Amino acid sequence: MTKVEPETPAPARSTTRAETLRRSLEEMIMSGALKPGDRLDETELATRFEVSRTPVREALKSLLATGLVEMSGRQGLTVAAISIGTLLEMFQLMAELEGLHAKLAARRASLPQRERMIAAHEQLKKTLERGDPQLFYDVNREFHEAIYEASQSEFLADQTRALRRRVAPYRRYVTYQPGRMAATITEHQRILDAIMSADGEAAQRAARDHVNLLGDNLADFIASLPPEMTRKSA
């Protein structure tokens, strides 16, 4: 009797497709291509990405668990919208996490890691001259990633990235504020100088202040958000 080798289980293939799709949807949410409040229809997504509904369902389930997607009554699944109060709390926490990264980087950064931070900062300065907020936002992420690496705390970096993904659609509006890109360069220089001087406390303060939304910046940020991107507090 001829032995029949078992086929590769379908769930494994589906899971792979689901993970690829999850990453694509996550990037679309972070980039603003999918905005808070946008409806996520399984059939439409399956047609768009040329897959069956099964991996779409699995991808959406994964995004639901991370908080990037939420159930919105009759609308079904939508890109999560966040209340102003919760959003501000998230930014405050983000500031603390970024500050801790900078403090650790000042103590732990290797020479190659220091060079990566410097290179990212120089690239961001060149990007500023082009006046492209979207490109600036993307390059800015590289500077922060360089600090995460230099902090040499993978667990902390994972937690920070997770929160960064949650607030990404909103952070973009901070970048678009008049004068914000030039201010970012100045603030990054303070962070970088403190890290290069191995002054952990100064690096922590500079990084925390860079992320925190205070005073007029806070009012401008809230005013810039389209109503559909936020929801009323319960």
What labels would you give this structure?
234 residues, mainly alpha, Arc Repressor Mutant, subunit A, Four Helix Bundle (Hemerythrin (Met), subunit A), 2 domains, two-stranded parallel sheet, 10 helices, 4 strands, disordered N terminus
Secondary structure topology:
Elements: H1 10-31, H2 42-49, H3 53-66, E1 69-71, E2 77-79, E3 82-83, H4 84-108, H5 111-130, H6 133-151, H7 154-175, H8 180-196, H9 200-211, H10 215-224, E4 230-231
Parallel strand pairs: 3-4
Antiparallel strand pairs: 1-2
Helix pairs in contact: 1-3, 1-7, 2-3, 4-6, 4-7, 4-8, 4-9, 5-6, 5-8, 6-7, 8-9
Write up what this structure looks like:
The structure is a single chain. The chain is mainly α and 234 residues long. It folds into 2 domains: 11-79, Arc Repressor Mutant, subunit A (Orthogonal Bundle), CATH 1.10.10.10; 83-227, GntR ligand-binding domain-like (Four Helix Bundle (Hemerythrin (Met), subunit A)), CATH 1.20.120. Helices cover 72% and strands 4% of the residues. It has 10 helices and 4 strands. The chain has helices at residues 10-31, 42-49, 53-66, 84-108, 111-130, 133-151, 154-175, 180-196, 200-211, 215-224, and strands at 69-71, 77-79, 82-83, 230-231. The protein has a two-stranded antiparallel sheet. The chain has a two-stranded parallel ribbon with strand order 3-4. Helix 4 (84-108) packs across helix 6. It starts with 9 loop residues before the first helix and ends with a strand. 27% of the residues are buried. The model is unreliable at 1-14 (pLDDT under 50). This is GntR family transcriptional regulator. InterPro entries: GntR_C, TF_FadR/GntR_C, Tscrpt_reg_HTH_GntR, WH-like_DNA-bd_sf, WH_DNA-bd_sf. One of its GO terms (molecular function) is DNA-binding transcription factor activity. Residues 15-82 form the HTH gntR-type domain. Keywords: DNA-binding, Transcription, Transcription regulation.
